[in-house]
Amino acid sequence: MKAMRKALLIALYLSAGGIGASTAASAGASTDADVAPPPVRDERPPARRDGYVWAAGYWEWSGHAYSWVPGRFLFEHRGAHWVPDRWDQVGSHWQHVNGHWEP
Questions:
Q1: Is residue 98 domain-resident?
Q2: Does residue 20 lie in a domain region?
Q3: Which residue range forms the structural domain that includes residue 94?
Q4: Quick check: pTM over 0.85?
Q5: What span, in angstroms and rounded, lies between the C-alpha atoms of 3 and 31?
């Protein structure tokens, strides 16, 4: 029984750490690229869902090439709005700014 409880606590600890890390990384720049991203794809969002917000897709840089990350529904944060992922040009480089919630 002790081993099962210990495994459960470890799993909870690790999952909480992952949530915190993704939340902290959700705002701010995450990736730099020397190559401009392709034009944003024209996605048609699915029908609206109560309690969710549509987050449009974006280009992700792997260090060698871009790949498209499709749009997805996110749980709505009441009192906040979703700022989508974007690429900003900084001099001759491109900087990916992660999508995030703003009040």
A1: yes
A2: no
A3: 29-102
A4: no
A5: 40
Whether pLDDT at 38 is above 80:
yes
Q: What is the pLDDT of residues 78-94, one digit of tens each?
A: 999 999 999 999 999 99
* Number of domains making up the chain: 1
Length of the chain: 103
**Given the structure tokens 């190559």, which residue do they identify?**
35
Give me 85's structure tokens. 């992922």
Confidence of residue 19 (pLDDT cuts 50, 70, 90): very low
Contacts 24+ apart (CB under 8 A), 87-95: 87/33, 87/36, 87/37, 87/58, 87/59, 88/29, 89/36, 90/32, 92/34, 93/32, 93/33, 93/34, 94/32, 94/33, 94/34, 94/35, 94/36, 94/37, 94/61, 95/29, 95/31, 95/32, 95/33
Q: Is residue 72 part of a domain?
A: yes
